[in-house]
Design a protein that fits this description.
about 150 residues; mainly alpha; 6 helices; about 5% strand; transmembrane helix; membrane; transmembrane
Length: about 150
């Protein structure tokens, strides 16, 4: 009688063969998930500019002044220390649309080591105490930093 040959083959060969069949699927899955994660981060971490409200008075500063104030605020905010007095000086006297211009000029800027990109309000919440943030809100008529 002839010995019967197994149709399954050796277990090691079958395992290697199945592993080789799965590798392209794993690569495609990893690429797809990586692109999805990248797109999600780009979408959620984008900077959305605020629109000036036409029912309020026009901005009391120009776009160039808003940019210089935003740069001055950013230079006074650091990883370890901050200059609250300079930030409050830069925000003093701004009306609603003036603050919107400074906010848009500030945009997203590099934050602290672990925070990533932050906008103006996020920077202030990150750098200052609750009392200081309330003072900044008072300077702007309570319209922001709520």
């Amino acid at each position: 009688m002839k010995p019967k040959k197994s149709k399954l083959g050796s277990p090691a060969e079958v395992a290697i063969e199945k592993t080789v069949e799965v590798i392209p699927f794993l690569i495609k899955t990893a690429v797809f998930l990586g692109l999805g994660y990248w797109a999600y981060n780009k979408y959620t971490n984008r900077f959305v500019k605020r629109k000036e409200n036409t029912s309020y008075p026009a901005a009391n500063i120009s776009l160039a002044q808003a940019q210089s104030r935003a740069d001055a605020i950013y230079s006074s905010l650091g990883w370890v220390s901050n200059d609250f007095d300079n930030v409050s000086r830069q925000l003093t006297g701004l009306n609603y649309n003036g603050f919107v211009r400074v906010y848009n000029a500030f945009g997203h800027r590099r934050g602290t080591l672990l925070k990533g990109q932050l906008n103006l309000e996020e920077w202030c919440y990150d750098q200052f105490t609750d009392y200081q943030v309330q003072q900044l809100s008072f300077l702007l008529g309570g319209a922001f930093f709520q």
